[in-house]
Amino acid sequence: MNKSNLTGFVLIFAIMMGFSWYQSRQYSKQMEAQAQLDSIARVEQMAAMAMDSMKRAQGILPENDVKVSTMPVYKDSLLTDARLADASFYKLSNDKLEIEFTTRGAQPYSVKINDYKSYDSTDLYLIKPDMSQMGISIFAGENINTKDFVFQVAEHNDSTIVMQLPFAGGGYIQQKYWLTEGSYMMQNELSFVNMDGIIPRNVSMFDIDWSVIIPRLEKGYKNEKQYSKLDFYYSGDKKPEEIGRGRDAGERIDTRFKWFAFQQQFFSAIMTAGTEFESADLNVKYFAEDDPSRNLMACNASLRSDFKAGSDNVTIPYEFYFGPNDYRTLKSYDQKYEKIIPLGGWLVGWFSRLIIIPCFDMLGRFISNYGLVILLMTLLIKLIISPLTIKSYKSSAKMQVIKPEVDKLNQKYPHEKDAMKKQQAMMDLYQKAGISPMGGCLPMLLQMPILFAMFRFFPASIELRQQKFLWADDLSAYDSIWDFGFNIPLLGDHLSLFALLMALTMFFYSKMTSAQMSDDPNMAGMKFMSVWLMPIMMFFICNNLSAALSYYYLLSNIITMIMTWYIRKFVVTEEKVRADMMLNASKPKQKSKWQQKLEEAQKMQEQMQKQQNRR
Predict the structure, then answer these.
(1) By residue range, what is the domain housing residue 470?
(2) Which of 94, 133, 418, 568 sits a CA distance of 20 to 30 A from 159?
(3) Is the pLDDT of residue 413 over 80?
């Protein structure tokens, strides 16, 4: 074989290997894409099933108008019998939950949370009857899915139920569920007993598919949808990942993870693996606001778990949390569940967890009226940040005193080419007056985490749910003094009085503070934004958000206006400011590094200007 032939064979082999590798990658991608489509299709199927159930209940569709699929034929006669058997229903309950099970698939049929009510004062079903489908798929001599078969009840009492699916070979699949008193957690053990001769030894995994329709439970659809989502958590991470906050979404997870959550605004269904899930497809699809069955979202989790074949008894533990998104309750399970509550990023979240939540809980233990709790908490926060507020006002008062001098500089340097000279002159003036350019802005910036923390905290605080105050019937939802009966773009179908009052106080406070702004034409846009644009924007934003949030901003504006008047009248008077400025002017001045750099830049600019003039 000559060199050319050898080279040709090597190239052919390389091309074949490369083509084979490419085909394998393409096939894997197609399988992943198909799995994603199948998962989405299951979510849409659940949504369609919910619609059909509603129509049959209303008499729109006859009860016998059900599409019957072709009955599969199973090798195992006991499976065929289980497929044809009629399902039965059993309940488990404790002081927190009431869970109904169906023997078809040995799965939860409905979940009622005892301590809470829906907005319409009916029992709160996190999962309504027949709005959940869960199946275990595995190869046991043939492909089976447990949701197709009726299990036999081996044990049942108020807190425990054991259901079994027998096989002709003597083995069985078992589902055991139990509740403990005082807990929202349901324990689950999936067992494959004496299945060694039925499940081949090369089977290394099984699939779990869980689809759930979560109903609407709150007053405001937009607010409820905005704070509803899917979450999943990787072991060891600081917080879970989230999918689809208020929008249809899906995600393929190809690495091991610990748990996932179907999260409504105030309640969640969380499934946790005893070890870890190997992979998953997670999807959520939201129903329209005018959905006649008042469903919120259709959730689906297609999960893959490890299976250790070759043993007579394989048991895989799981945990199901069905309960409120209460920070202390979720944290008590030590699984990072509390991280699903949207408290903001690390800084805002840190402030919420360490200051706002403990303060809110402490006041709530002694005061039952949460309107008063918010008032006291607002006063406390304003008191804590008052040193920063006084510092900001001092800077603003000094700016007001030197305002005539600033106006003269604006007249002296009206052109853009003199911007550097004007800035240098401004810096000299500020130094003589003892004013820091950031003196007024920095204290306000330090208060921003508080504002963001409150924006996050109130809509996610379950303590405010269905709490009445003044004209608001639910502080966690919007308040309405006028229901339009039709929808106005950006505004909604109602008028919130708290949002309107908040915007008005924001306008008057901006008018109060804008008088201290410079008459510099460059400040005209900022004045318009603070006085007019921001109050209008905040009104449209808060009209559909929780009444507690608008109420807090209203209180904050009123208290700030009172503090502003008091500080100007008694603490930071013009006489005191002028005396401080005169004392500061008598002290020897040392130029800051910023001023030195500014002077150097000005000198360089003047030299360049001279060179250009010579040319």
Answers:
(1) 348-586
(2) 133
(3) no
**421 touches 413 (CB < 8 A):** yes
CATH of the domain at 109: 2.70.98.90
CB 509 within 8 A of CB 557: yes
Q: Which of 310, 335, 360 is the last residue of a domain?
A: 335
Name the DSSP class of 469.
Answer: B
| Exposed/middle/buried for residue 56 (C-beta within 10 Å: 0-12, 13-18, 19+) | middle
42 shares its domain with 189: yes
* pTM of the entire predicted model: 0.76
Query: Does residue 594 fall inside a structural domain?
Result: no
Tens of pLDDT, residue by residue over 471-516, are 998 898 888 888 888 888 878 888 999 999 999 998 888 887 776 5
Separation in Å, CA 225 to CA 263, 265, 327, 431:
10, 7, 20, 52
Which residues neighbour 517 within 8 Å (Cβ) at sequence distance 6 or greater? 523, 526, 527
Ramachandran angles phi, psi of 138, nearest 5°: -155, 155
DSSP three-state, residue 8: helix
Domain count, the chain: 2
Quickly state the pLDDT bin for 351 (edges 50, 70, 90).
confident
Residue 92 to residues 122, 180, 267, 383: CA-CA distances in angstroms? 20, 10, 19, 50
Domain membership flag for residue 200: yes
